[in-house]
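Kindly review these C-alpha cells for lecture notes.

. . .
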Amino acid sequence: MDLKIPFENGTKYSIELDTNGIYIKAGKFESLPRNIAPERAPLIELSSEAIPGGGIDAGNAWVFKLPNGQTWNLATGYALMNGHPITTSAGVVESSNPQDGAKAATEQGNTITSTETFMDEQGHSFQLTAQATRNELLGFVIKVVAVC
C-alpha cells in the first residue's frame, strides 16, 4: 500500500526539509521534496514495506524561512496500518523533531496555529496555520497558510 500526500504551501515563503527532518519507523519514502516553493503542492509519497503486516509510520521536520530572519518549525506525520479495514493517519505539530510529527498523526487529522506571531516585509503581523485534513481520493492533504 502507498500513501500520496500533497503538501500545499499556501504561503509566499519557502519551506525546507530540516537537516535532521526524516524519521521512519516503518515503510519508506518514495518521493520527499527537500524544498517547497511558495504556492506549490508537491507530493510526499510513501510505501509500506513489502512484508506481511507492513505499514507506514513516518514523520518529517520542516523549517519555514520567513522575513527578517524569522523561522517556524513544523513537524508532519503519516501512518498507514494494514488490516481490515486499512487505516490512514496524518498530523501536524509545532516542533523541529520529526518523531513528534509521527506521534501527532491521527485518523481525523488536525489543525494548529503558530504560537508565535511573525512580521512580514511591510510590518504586518501574521501567524501560520497548518492542517492535515482528509481527502476522499488521497487520504490526507497537508496545507499551510498565513493568517493575518
About this structure: The first strand starts at residue 2 and ends at 10.
